[in-house]
Each structure stands twice: as structure tokens, then as C-alpha cells.
Automatic annotation (TrEMBL):
Family: Belongs to the KHG/KDPG aldolase family.
This enzyme's EC code(s): 4.1.2.14
Keywords attached to this entry: Carbohydrate metabolism, Lyase, Schiff base
The protein, known as: 2-dehydro-3-deoxy-phosphogluconate aldolase
Pfam families per UniProt: Aldolase
Length: 218
């Protein structure tokens, strides 16, 4: 059986193809990381984005990569420069997501072990990544940057570009995004509500993941 594609520009496509929903996770207590991920796996979700917004993010990524290497593909989100990119790779992140782009970040992503899903909000930003060979992008903040209509418009001049829109997407709107031909997955915080995480309501999170997947795939 052939192994995973080696080109980082191809590997990020393989990550997005693993599931239509990517929870955008902020970890405040590293002890929550493992039971939270196990709940999401129980609900059918395999790709997780842990944002580098708290001091607990990198330890959480390391914990998940160590304890659930076969169950989940863990990526680091909110990566804004090569230094934080390298830190994410050092703890085992399998992919990296940025909220926006810079030339340095795009260049590093071409050489990195963990593939980059660069964030864009405009056609001009898309063209910067496109020029370097990127064909998969995070569209952020999706709801503010034009939502469904913007993605439909981008499909014309960039028919081979695919997206993971994030930002303002809810459980009841995810299905509309996934219906677009150029959307491979959607990301959102609704899959890991802060109140359920703080209360350790892991069965509730598993149920929410399962129901969200069912509504998107039906």
C-alpha cells in the first residue's frame, strides 16, 4: 500500500480529506486535552486543531501526539511566524494552520515537516500562496470575509484551490459551506464549547460531535 504523499502541498490535502469537521480547540488546562480528544474521537472526529493561544497549547499537542498517535491527527493553529511553527513541530504537530500569511511563513511551510494550511481572507492573499504552489487554504474569518458568496466567487478564477473556512461558522451553517465544491472541510469552535469543557462534559461533547457530523453528511 502506498504511503502518505511526501510533498507538503499534497499532505495538507490528505489531512483535510480525513473528515469534514475540524474542531478549533483552545486548551486552558492541559489535563483536559486527552479526555476532550477521546470524546471527539468517540463522536467520529479525527482531525484536531489546537490553537496556540494559551501556554497550555504546546504541552497539550505533545500529550495528544504521544497518547493518541493512531486515533487523531493533531495540528497547531494560530501559528503566525516560523518560530512558533518550529515549536509546534517540535512537540509533534502533524500540520500547522495560520490565521493569515507572510512571505516568511509561506516559505517556511514549503520546507517544513508539518504541512501548512495558510490563512487567507482576500483574493490577493490567495494569489500570493497560489504563486508558491499552495492550493489548500484556510478561509478566515469566513463569515466576516464574505462567507459562502466569497468562496463561490473564488471558484471561478481558482478552480483547483480548496478551502477550510473557519470563523463565525456554526453547526447550523456548516452544511452549507460543505456543499460547495471547493470546500473540503470546515473548522469551528462550536464543537468544543467552553462551558462543556470546563465542566468536563465529555459525553456531551461526544454527542455534539456525532450529531454535527450526521447533520453535515446527511
Amino acid at each position: 500500500m502506498p504511503g502518505p504523499p511526501q510533498d507538503p502541498l499534497q499532505r495538507i490535502h490528505a489531512v483535510l480529506a480525513m473528515g469534514p469537521l475540524v474542531p478549533v480547540i483552545t486548551i486552558h488546562r492541559k489535563e483536559d486535552a486527552l479526555p476532550l480528544a477521546e470524546a471527539l474521537v468517540e463522536g467520529g472526529i479525527r482531525v484536531l486543531e489546537v490553537t496556540l493561544r494559551t501556554p497550555e497549547a504546546l504541552p497539550a499537542i505533545e500529550i495528544l501526539c504521544k497518547h493518541l498517535p493512531a486515533e487523531v491527527v493533531v495540528g497547531a493553529g494560530t501559528v503566525t511566524d516560523p518560530d512558533s511553527y518550529r515549536q509546534a513541530e517540535s512537540v509533534g504537530a502533524r500540520f500547522v494552520v495560520s490565521p493569515g500569511i507572510t512571505p516568511r511563513l509561506l516559505d517556511y511551510g514549503l520546507r517544513a515537516n508539518a504541512p501548512l494550511l495558510p490563512g487567507i481572507a482576500t483574493v490577493s492573499e490567495l494569489m500570493l500562496g497560489y504563486e508558491l504552489g499552495y492550493r489548500a487554504f484556510k478561509f478566515f474569518p469566513a463569515a466576516v470575509a464574505g462567507g459562502l458568496e466569497a468562496l463561490k466567487a473564488m471558484a471561478g478564477p481558482f478552480p483547483d484551490a480548496v478551502f477550510c473556512p473557519t470563523g463565525g461558522i456554526r453547526r447550523d451553517t456548516a452544511r452549507e459551506y460543505l456543499a460547495l465544491s471547493n470546500v473540503m472541510a470546515v473548522g469551528g469552535t462550536w464543537l468544543t464549547p467552553e462551558n462543556r469543557v470546563s465542566e468536563s462534559d465529555w459525553p456531551g461533547i461526544a454527542r455534539l460531535a456525532r450529531e454535527s457530523l450526521a447533520s453535515c453528511l446527511s
